[in-house]
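Input sequence (390 aa), recorded before submission:
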Amino acid sequence: MAVYVDGEVATVSDVAVRSAVVETCNEHNNKSLYPLDTEKNDSLEYCQKTVLAMLADAKANSILPKQRLSILIQWRDFLPLLEKTRYLDTEKLRFSQIIDTLIELAYLLCDWSLLIFIRTQLLAGNACQSSQKSVESACSLSTVYQHIGRYDLAEKSLVRAVLANPNDLVLHQQWCALKEENAQQKVCYHDSEISLTPLTHAHLHDFAWQYNELVKELCNLPLFVKNEDWHYWYQDMQADPNRHLFAVIHQEWGFIGCVNLQVFNGTGFFYYWLGDDFQGCGFGPRAVSLLMDFGYHEHDMHCCYAKVYAHNLPSHKAIDKLGFQKLPFTATHPDENEVFYYCGDIKPDHQLFAELTTLLQNMDSAIQPIPHKEMFTMANHTNLFAETVA
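Predicted structure, token format:
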């Protein structure tokens, strides 16, 4: 188990962390919408032209989810050029315009790592920035840190702004509100690349970029036609005190999927999903491993169940790697395609069946498991033996 402690998050300058995702992106054939001209790629003029075209497409909602990652990767190729030219007096205006465009793009495409990099690196030490601009930047950075679950860094960002502007009452109120919220926040489970942070209403657009029809089908999730549909669904999930829903956050790419855990009397049930671009990178099992740590340490979970559609072969492989064992039970129609899994202490089949049945009832699930025939025989022998002894 690991929990976040003090320290900065990785930013887009940490190129090594994106190699696996870039490879997956190439496998999915996410070709760039804005082909790079290698001869012009070292000019701010070309950079500005390209990001303006990206912004126009983003505002027109013409960027598809499957194209998003390749765009995020492409505009990172401009960052070394921006770092080199940020102090050139002759390019000050163009640099400022490109930065403003990238900030707007980052919000539209939910690229929080890029926003952090811009605020903490490209705009760091900007002596020309007004006091009001500095406050706005600090508040923006604080919001982004909260979005990815780094409430410690969100508070630090506001503290720096308060110290620089001690008479700003609005800023002071924001800081006090965040301190109060931080006091109620649970620790954030993480490993070297990904973390789990509670899903909030603010994750709507992140969720929308990764959600698709296949996720809806495999996780039995609803169809979201309007933003309000998602918010209502989220409220329903939050109303269940036994449910714990997390955003899976990658330190470079932000929101990449969700994990969900329900715990009843120490017995858990989980599901997870990842966006297309982040499947096959090993992030799913790592996110579930963090979720299991959360269940064991925060909710005294002693065992966990899951279910997978029989045809979902990648999920079968992933859950097997996590130490879950396939159970010899089927389900009644129309759920006969469900395969059940269990992780925990060794138990006889009839006990597992009873525990699973009770769990599904507690979850208000319509799925009804069917025991195998040998289990009836074993259970009868056990009962007869108990009666004989009595």
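Checked by second reader. The two ends are 46 Å apart (CA to CA).
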